[in-house]
C-alpha cells in the first residue's frame, strides 16, 4: 500500500509537472493553455510519445526529434521535482490513513499550493518577477486555511492570533526594506509571497521559512560570486548582482512544511 501510493503519487505529480511546464512557458504571453505543444525552433508538434514526463526527454537525449535542437532541462526537472513533492506529501499524510476523506482533501489542497509555488519558483528564476495573480491566489488559499483552523480550533489564544496575523507580520519587513530602499534592496513581490507563507505555515514556521530563505540565499549568493569571479575574471560581480529571491523563500517554505524546524526558538515564547 505504501509503495503503491508513493509510486502513484509520483507519476501523478510528474504529469502535473508537465502541465506546470506549459503554464510557465505560456504565462503572460497571450497563448492559451489548450494549444498543442511544439518545438520552439522548428514548430514540430509533439506526439503523445513525446509528452511522457521525464522519459521522453531522456529518450530524446534532451533534443527535438525533428530538428535536433536542445530542449531545456527545465522540463524533466520540474516534472521530477513535482513528482517527488507529491510523493513526500502523500507520505506525510500517512497518519490520516484511517480518515480517507480528510487525507484526500488535505492532499488536494496542498498539491494545489505546491503547484502554485513551483510555477512561481521557475517563473521568478527566469524572469525575476513574481506574478501578482499567483501570489494573491496562494495568499488567499493560505488565509482560508488559517481561518478554517481558527474556526475549528474554537479557543482564541495568543498562538491563534499570531497565526491569523502571520501573513501581515511576514509582509511588513519586506515592505519596510522595499520602502526604505525605494525598491533597490528587494522587490515588493517577495513581500506579497511572504503574505501566503505566513498564513500557510503560521507565525513560528512562517518566520522560520523566511529566515531559512535568507540563510540559503546568502550562502548561494556568496558561492555564486566566488564561482563567477573565478570564471569571469574580466567582470566585476558584486552583491548588487540581481538574484531572484522567491526560489529561496519557496525552498524555506517546503523545508518548514515537511520538517517544522523552529530555527530561532520562537515557539518558546508563545
Essential attributes:
270 residues; mainly alpha; 2 domains; globular
Give an account of the 3D structure.
- Helices cover 67% and strands 0% of the residues.
- It is globular, with a radius of gyration of 20 Å.
- It has two domains: 1-127, no CATH class; 131-270, no CATH class.
- The relative contact order is 0.09.
- It is an all-alpha fold and 270 residues long.
- It is built from eight helices and no strands.
Short synopsis of the structure:
By secondary structure, the protein is an all-alpha fold. 67% of the residues lie in helices and 0% in strands.
If you compute it from the alpha carbons, what radius of gyration comes out, rounded to the nearest whole angstrom? 20 Å
What is the domain total for the residues? Answer: 2
Classification by helices and strands: mainly alpha
Task: Pick out the low-confidence regions.
Answer: none
H/E element order: HHHHHHHH
Helix content: 55-70%
- Overall 3D form: globular
Amino acid at each position: 500500500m505504501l509503495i503503491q501510493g508513493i509510486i502513484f503519487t509520483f507519476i501523478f505529480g510528474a504529469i502535473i509537472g508537465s502541465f506546470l511546464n506549459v503554464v510557465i512557458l505560456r504565462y503572460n504571453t497571450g497563448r492559451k493553455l489548450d494549444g498543442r505543444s511544439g518545438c520552439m525552433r522548428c514548430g514540430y508538434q509533439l506526439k503523445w510519445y513525446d509528452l511522457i514526463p521525464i522519459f521522453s526527454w531522456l529518450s530524446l537525449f534532451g533534443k527535438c526529434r525533428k530538428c535536433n535542437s536542445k530542449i531545456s532541462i527545465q522540463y524533466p526537472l520540474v516534472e521530477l521535482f513535482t513528482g517527488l513533492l507529491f510523493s513526500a506529501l502523500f507520505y506525510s499524510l500517512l497518519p490520516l490513513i484511517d480518515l480517507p476523506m480528510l487525507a484526500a482533501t488535505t492532499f488536494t489542497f496542498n498539491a494545489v499550493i505546491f503547484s502554485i509555488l513551483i510555477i512561481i519558483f521557475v517563473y521568478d528564476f527566469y524572469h525575476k518577477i513574481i506574478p501578482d495573480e499567483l501570489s494573491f491566489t496562494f495568499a488567499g488559499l493560505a488565509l482560508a486555511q488559517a481561518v478554517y483552523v481558527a474556526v475549528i480550533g474554537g479557543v482564541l489564544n495568543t498562538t491563534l492570533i499570531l497565526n491569523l496575523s502571520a501573513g501581515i507580520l511576514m509582509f511588513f519587513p519586506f515592505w519596510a526594506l522595499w520602502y526604505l530602499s525605494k525598491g533597490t534592496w528587494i522587490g515588493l513581490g517577495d513581500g506579497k509571497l511572504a503574505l501566503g507563507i505566513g498564513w500557510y505555515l503560521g507565525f513560528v514556521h512562517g518566520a522560520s521559512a523566511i529566515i531559512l530563505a535568507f540563510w540559503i540565499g546568502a550562502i548561494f549568493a556568496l558561492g555564486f560570486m566566488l564561482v563567477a569571479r573565478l570564471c569571469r575574471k574580466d567582470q566585476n560581480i558584486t552583491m548588487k548582482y540581481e538574484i531572484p529571491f522567491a526560489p529561496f523563500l519557496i525552498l524555506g517554505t517546503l523545508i518548514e512544511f515537511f520538517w517544522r524546524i523552529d530555527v530561532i526558538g520562537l515557539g518558546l515564547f508563545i
